[in-house]
Amino acid sequence: MTAARGVEDRNLIPRWRPFKVAAGLGELGSPGRSTSQDTFTVPIEALDKFRASPGLHTAADALGLAATLSNLDLLIPVIAYIDRTDDANGILRAAAESVRRKLQGEPIDTSQDWTDLAEANSAIRRLRGELRSFPRNPTKWVDLALAQTLLGEVAKAERSLLTALTLAPSNRFVLRSAVRFFLHMDDPETAGQVLRHVRASEDPWILAAELATDEAADRSPRSMKQALHALSSSSFSPWTLSELACTVAHAEFNEGRDKRGRKILVQATIEPTENAAAQIEFESQRGGFTAPKAVLQPQGSFEAAAIEARGREDWNNAIEAGQSWQMDQPFAVEPAMFLSYVAAVGAEDYAAAERAARIGRVANPKDPMLANNLVFALANQDKKIDVDELLSRSAPPRDSREEAVHNATRGLVAFRAGDVQQGRTYYSLATKQSLDLNFPGQAALAASYWAREEIRARSEEAAEIWKLARTLTEHTAERDAEMILSRLPKDSIRSSLPMY
Amino acid sequence: MGYLASHTSGKEGFVKVINYQAIFFSPDPTAAMHAITEAYNFERALVEKCSQKRLSRVVSAYRHDSLLSAGQPYPVSFIIFERAQDDIRAVLDAASDLDLAVRLRMVHNAAAGIAQLHSIGVAHQDVKPSNLLVFSTSVTTKDSAKIGDLGRATDPQRSARHDGYVIAGDPTYAPPEQRFGEIAATFGARRLACDIYQLGNLLTFVLGGVTMNMLMDMYLDPSHTPRNWKGTYSEVLPYIQAAHAAGLATLDHTLDDHPLKADLLNVVSATTDPDVTRRGHAASHRAGQPYSMNRIVTELDLLSRRAESRYMEAAS
To answer: Residue A285 to residues A31, A295, B305: CA-CA distances in angstroms?
Structure first.
């Protein structure tokens, strides 16, 4: 048949990015509680000494005032001195540069090229080396786990994460990363265990992760009271609360309390994170309503853009945004499924679909639907494949619906291999299974691709299957099958059909 | 205020004087008078205590007194300290090629001074480059430097105004837990661990040219700086640990491939550990005396000796 679209529901689970990136995005700032701190006078003896006897060490000492001085302009002569002194070592120059960046308000560089799969192996070597020297660095262990997850080394990744959890059992970055990992492993129970000692936290970021974990485990949310309390508190910024608002709204939608869900969702639209923006886009498409535009648009909201473009059937933009989404979360199955589907079914860009599925399969080698989408992309490019080998290397379909999708894809492969009869058998089975399961959209899509293959094979049954497909498309609100049919060459259909 | 002075015998000293004039020009003269005289009396008592205990690695006072000069409306209260060549910053600037052996011996002397203070129950609280005073830069001199300025020290037997501050000394050199407003419950964790951190901070400065605080600030995300963080220290600690590790890695890359490098980095790492419960020498922790300075002093002495013998071998 076809590519599979991936999960039809969206639960806002935490993103997992390298520490430096997550910190740069501001997701690891302190929650809104205030603590009383001493106000102190900063002695500027170091600056006086530098002025009286300028030298690299007096300059270095004065530069240290950058952490405590409120007026950094005082340090401009110090930086200039270090700049123009040839003997300044690299460390002092770097320190002066960091103070200059602060002075000019330049953001710190948060780019991390190692999330590129090609760099993941060398990243693991580097991270391991750093951890050998300084093992008590929980964020580094999490980064190592992420690099290991990218390469599908999940057992090692789990050990790295457990080390991080031992070192920093209550830290937001560590906890949210661990939750994301265990949900990636389809293990919401362990994800819940990770959060057990911070349950009902005052931290909205952790509360959001807890609610998402409960949702993934099919449990009713245990800390809803605390979540609602946090949402009504004025201690947190709208941005800090946006993911929590989305998870609460999602739970309300799932309980059928749409009006309440939409009201809470509006709170997330003020200043959403990119993850919240994607959830808002998803909920509004699922619920058929228009959410208010975000007052402040988040940076890098690739998933939201991808979902939105797909909704408009703007396939090129959906692919572009999907590729950025996959680069941001290369270990995740969701962008790989989305992109391989949209590229193959929407844009008929099978090479892009193949690439997306292959990237996704590095971290998810056993995912049966990703394997399906890879086979679908390969077959459409008439590449020689051993479908049994490819599909059998992955886990078996998780349910009858996935089994139907697999059967349809086997039908496509058989057609392309010239075995029309076997192709027909598989497609017929897939269509029937989908109808029996009450997935009319999936049945229509399978029948549409079946019709396409019959026409390509110039078979006598092409007209009948086309009619079947057209009938099925009329009984579904999903438009993808209709689009497939509309692309079939009119002449071929006309010559096959007595009605023309 | 400070002055250089010399005795008729030729002996030189550094004179620390109470600035009474400033008191009368302050907006609240009585409060200023109280604060300044309290600080003076505190330091005077402490230097007396150090002199009585013959702390050889702490800058000693020759004399303290209050004298009324002719024509002056109020007396001059002062403490005369022994005079050093200069502080470590000026010395390193004057001799940029100063051998590692000499630099290490100076830090060892600072460690010994802190240990001597701890042995009489006093924590210094303000160890920083300007307070490491150098008396000799000869590689053959074992007593090349002393720790000075007890104005921010803590002595459980005498109360001082700064005892109540989260940061008793200069905030620029304070250990991270203090910069984030954490007040440890015990004297050891609050005061002694602070001295150990500041010693490591000083060692980093002597080895790499910048302090560990500066290094960590280079790698801390702006949202995790003391100025912006509103949570507790334990919440921010993993991020401080990440910055600390990055700082150590940078120091590692900066130092030449010296045979002592790994050992030196270990000392820096242990003394500047952002986790106050792990700071200090591992063996001291195992022995149940986590903030004991003895092993740190011994280790720095050993490293200094190794550096000195390498210097001697190279010289011969």
So the answer is: 31, 19, 73
Half-sphere exposure of A458 toward its Cβ, with a 13 Å CA cutoff? 2
B26, B43: one domain: yes
Place of tokens 């639209």: A269
Q: Tell me the chain A residues in contact with residue B278 when contact means C-beta distances shorter than 8 Å.
A: 136
| Structure token pair of residue A182 | 């265990």
- Domain boundary among the residues B82, B116, B135 is at B82
The answer to whether the Cβ–Cβ distance between A43 and B241 falls below 8 Å is no
Q: Within a 13 Å sphere around the CA of B8, how many CA atoms are in the beta-carbon half?
A: 0
For the purposes of burial, counting CB atoms within 10 Å of the CB of A438, is it exposed (0-12), middle (13-18) or buried (19 or more)? Answer: exposed
Contacts of A49 (CB under 8 A, 6+ apart): A58, A61, A62, B89, B90, B130
- At residue B123, does pLDDT exceed 60? yes
CATH number at residue B273: 1.10.510.10
Residue B272 has pLDDT above 90, yes or no: yes
pLDDT at A36 over 50: no
Of A85, A104, A123, which residue is a domain's last? A104
Residue after which a domain boundary falls, among A60, A89, A104 = A104
Residue B186: give the domain boundaries.
86-315
The whole-angstrom separation of Cα A3 and Cα A338 is 10
What is the number of domains present in chain B? Answer: 2
**pLDDT at A198 exceeding the cut of 90:** no
Q: Whole domain around residue A299: which residue ranges?
A: 111-305
Q: A248-288 pLDDT, tens per residue?
A: 999 999 888 989 999 999 999 999 999 999 999 889 888 88
- The residue whose two tokens read 């002597």 is B206
Contact B226 A67 (CB under 8 A): yes
pLDDT tens digits, A373-416: 999 999 999 887 777 777 777 788 889 999 999 999 999 999 99
In the three-class reduction of DSSP (H, G, I as helix; E, B as strand; rest coil), residue B140 is classed as coil
**Contacts of A417 by beta carbon, 8 Å cutoff, 6+ apart:** none
B137 touches chain A (CB under 8 A): no
| pLDDT 10s digits, A200-234 | 788 999 999 999 999 999 988 889 999 999 999 88
Looking at the structure, tell me whether residues B252 and B168 fall in a common domain: yes
Rounded Cα gap, residues B252 and B261, in angstroms: 8
Same domain, A398 and A486: yes
CA–CA dist A62, A60 (Å, integer): 5
User: Closest partner residue to A64 among B211, B234, B254, by Cβ?
Assistant: B211
Contact A139 B234 (CB under 8 A): no
Choose among A359, A362, A366, A370: nearest CA to A325.
Answer: A359
- B230 and B208: one domain? yes
Token pair of A26 as six digits = 């501001």
- Residue environment code for B112-128, b if the CB has 16+ CB neighbours within 10 A, otherwise e: bbbbbbbeeebbbbbbb
